[in-house]
């Protein structure tokens, strides 16, 4: 006998009929919904079986971006120079070396440029001016700065890049007087410059 969509799937007579009729009755639509729900649960269960927890560990370090300056207050004695050695514009006194000592340079720093800052000479702006404008200051003279290779460093200008290695480093420079006039006058010849280091 054909199945009934709103009753039991089969009709029987006798004791078998009583047993079947006592079972819960499901419509075909409910049966299909049950199968769909079961399939969805199986799909989600299969997906979750592949999920896993994990941990990511990040490692690094924050380092100083500058070296330590060991001698920030540098004295450079240029000496007492006879005026006859600077009588003509362009004449120079002997060069006096000086150093900037650095320590604790990390391996992230490969180079540095030094910049010497101060008042420039009125006759030659690449030179550092001497004196404070006092009556007893020398006239017609400026202070020249040079790098280790003897290349002039203009006042308020940066040097070429100087190589750094991890740990301690010494930056070598030199200074001397240069006459800027043919009428040089004797007197005090002191000058002051600050320096800034630009790391690479």
Automatic annotation (TrEMBL):
It comes from the Bacteria. GO terms for cellular component: pilus. GO terms for biological process: cell adhesion involved in single-species biofilm formation. Residues 56-199 form the Fimbrial-type adhesion domain. Coiled coil: none annotated. InterPro entries: Adhesion_dom_fimbrial, Adhesion_dom_fimbrial_sf, Adhesion_dom_sf, Bact_Fimbrial_Adh_Pro. Gene3D superfamilies: Fimbrial-type adhesion domain. This is Type 1 fimbrial protein. It comes from Burkholderia contaminans.
